[in-house]
Amino acid sequence: MNKEQILEAIKAMTVLELNDLVKAIEDEFGVTAAAPVAVVGAAAGAAEEKTEFDVVLASAGAEKIKVIKAVREITGLGLKEAKEVVDNAPKALKEGVSKDEAEQIKAKLEEVGASVEVK
Question: Among the entry's GO cellular component annotations, what is one (predicted)?
Answer without folding.
Answer: ribosome
